[in-house]
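From the shared-data thread, chain only:
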Amino acid sequence: MPVYRIGLEKRFPPVRHAENGLLAYGGDLSVERLLLAYRQGIFPWYSEGDPILWWAPEERMIILPPEIHISRRLARILRQNHWEVKADTCFDCVIQCCASAPRKDEGGTWILPEMQQAYGELHRKGYAHSIELFNCGALVGGLYGVSLGGVFFGESMFSRESNASKVCLAVLARQCERWNMDMIDCQLWTEHLASMGARLVMRATFMGALRMALKRPTRRGAWTLDGDILAACATRRQTRLGGTK
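Structure, as tokens:
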């Protein structure tokens, strides 16, 4: 199948036309186009010097919020309670930290300045959100993504202290569970995500779940986390429900 070229029109080809996950190239990173992409199970991912590439992988990594896996070690760390966790207080700083974080086997970042600007605009429109972890007032970990309906589309995370990104993901999952959100889209498989309870599903399964989840209202605007959310994360379930690759 061909990889489609996108012009000025605000539309995408059906995701079943993706070739090895790559669906299309071109277009722009406007708020309107990004929201349209996420609603159709598509996300941008490209390197400096490339055109904008739009992806819809055949296999999709997701977390169902009740299935987040908190290891015994992470639960012990959480019970020490020396961190402070917030949401949407320093989105731009979080995305900049994600962009500058070293990546194994990667020489650069795909979170280019135009991506940072685009997701910053999504944040200002109330669709993109960040989870932020502080230690003695210093930002030590965080993640960001896009929220539509009952789905949080995770984009990236970073850690400046051991386990900081795991704590942020655990907080996100617990808060999403309390808000009755359906799933966290992690996009691609990583060992780190699998260890936290993420599972691979086929694209058709993901698209069906996405259509149902988008029927829920979008929790738009600045997020406020529940005050006891770190303690709730430390309450480890006895049975791990999530699957891994």
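The domain at 61-234 is CATH 3.40.630.70 (Aminopeptidase).
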